[in-house]
Every structure is written in C-alpha cells, then in structure tokens.
Amino acid sequence: MTRVAIVTGGTRGIGEAISLALKEQGRTVVANYAGNDAKAKAFAEARGIRVYKWDVGDHEACLAGCRQVEEEVGPVDIVVNNAGITRDGTLARMTYDDWHDVMRINLGGCFNMAKACFPGMVARGWGRIVNIGSINGQAGQYGQVNYAAAKSGIHGFTKALAQEGAKKGVTVNAIAPGYIDTDMVAAVPAPVLEKIIAKIPVGRLGHADEIARGVTFLTSDDAGFITGSTMSLNGGQHMY
Ligand code: CAA
C-alpha cells in the first residue's frame, strides 16, 4: 500500500511541484486548495492527482477535509504544510486584516493540519510533516511583519512538534525557501525584486522543483533521523 500525502496549497506554485514530486516518488497524493475551482479541476485532470477544497485557516473545515480524505483515500502519513499568502506592506499601511489573514492561514493552517493528522501518525507509528517556512521568517523582510512573524512561528512550531513526535516515528521538519520563481514572488515590484536577486549569491531565483526535492527527501524513510531541522534552500542568500 502506498503512503498517502496531503499537500496544502498543492495545485499551484511550489505546492504543485511538491505534489508532482511526491507522486513521482510513488506516494498517493491529495492536493488541497482554497481558491479557484476551475484551475484545480484542470490540475486534477492534467496531473491525475485528487484535489480537495478547504481553507486551511478554518479549523473545523480542516478537520472535516482531512476526515473526508481519510475515508475516501486512506490514513494520512505525510503532510506538507505549504499553503500560504502574502499581504505585504509597511506597518503604517498594514491593516489588522492583513496581519490576521496571514497569521490565520500561514501559521494557523499548520496547527489545524497537525490537529487533524498528527494523532493518527502517532497511533500508526510512522509519519512525516514538512512545514514550508521562509527565508523571511529567518531573516525578516521590509514590508512583511505579518508574513515574517507567521513564518518564524512555523519554525518554532516545527521544533516543538518534532519533540512530541520523535519517539513515535513521526518527524517534523521545515524547509525555508528563498526567493523562488512563482507568482507570489513575481508580484514583488520589479525594482525591489531586482535588488533582492542581486543579493542572491547563486545569481538567480530558485525553482519550485528545487524545493520539492527537499520535501521528497525529508518525507522518505531514509530521513528518519532528521527531525526538528530547517533545510534552508535559498541560493546562499541567508546562511542560517
Ligand atoms: N530596507 C530599507 N528600506 C527599504 C527597503 C528595505 N529592504 N525596501 C524599501 N525601503 C525604503 C525605500 O527605499 C523607500 O524609502 P524612501 O521613501 O526614503 O525612498 C521606502 O522604504 C518605501 O519603499 P517602497 O517604495 O517599496 O514602498 P511601498 O509602500 O511602495 O512598498 C512594499 C512597500 C510593498 C513592502 C514593497 O517594498 C515590497 O513589495 N517589498 C518586497 C517585500 C517582499 O520581499 N516580499 C516577498 C514576497 S514573496 C515571499 O514572501 C516568498 C518568500 O517566502 C520569500
């Protein structure tokens, strides 16, 4: 029986690359999404990956969505908490909603998915959770107090939950991507992005499949001794 993996935000950007890589690795992949039904349907048909819609920031919806996956697909062994949004702006311009939405989805989503899936992993004695953090959670970033706080929170969440899973065969790790060539990064104003790229030692943006390869490794049987760690995949932009 193949292991079941859920990738949140798994139909676009880094999440899409992770879904595809896990499928190629032989996992039974479920891609969660929250937004565009037509795009998700097209993704499901093109990739042969089941899609399920719920808002990871909604606690009850998340529990119900994961329960449905377990009934229809099987027990969830691998969770990749990838879903995330940005609401960039300097503190002066940032609204409470900008703050709250980012905390609720980016950080709250990790809690909600863990509440739904971690107990089953512990009961079965095997599990893998990979949380997608960010270079901006490690180093901070101008105009991102909300996003940097949520991503930094993800790194703390990872280290704490890793301690709870360690003796039970469940590893919990984070990947901290740098700037990757996705729609999210393309939304950064061009002059700002040019300055950021100039500071990346390898001299380019990363590719989504370079993050996905980190996920396939951390979720493999070979990675059983790695837990509570952060894999920084950022082209040398922040060596942490
Ligand atoms: N450090 C110090 N000062 C800075 C700065 C920086 N990094 N960036 C901008 N400033 C200064 C500018 O020089 C400018 O100063 P003056 O007014 O004295 O000229 C002032 O701040 C205003 O700058 P902007 O014109 O950029 O301000 P804005 O209000 O138009 O935009 C912003 C603010 C939306 C935050 C914009 O700067 C921005 O988008 N920055 C990029 C944020 C970013 O990197 N987001 C990453 C998104 S992708 C992602 O998050 C994925 C991931 O995990 C990596």
TrEMBL record:
Instruction: State a GO cellular component annotated for this protein.
Output: cytoplasm
Classification via InterPro entries: Acetoacetyl-CoA_reductase, KR_dom, NAD(P)-bd_dom_sf, Sc_DH/Rdtase_CS, SDR, SDR_fam
Domain of life of the native organism: Bacteria
Supply the EC number(s): 1.1.1.36
Domain Ketoreductase: where?
Answer: 3-178
From the record, give the transmembrane residue ranges: none
User: Which keywords accompany this UniProt record?
Assistant: Oxidoreductase
Q: Which GO terms describe its biological process?
A: monocarboxylic acid metabolic process; poly-hydroxybutyrate biosynthetic process
A single GO molecular function term of this UniProt record? acetoacetyl-CoA reductase activity
| Similarity field | Belongs to the short-chain dehydrogenases/reductases (SDR) family.
User: Know the name of this protein?
Assistant: Acetoacetyl-CoA reductase
The organism of origin for this protein: Tsuneonella dongtanensis
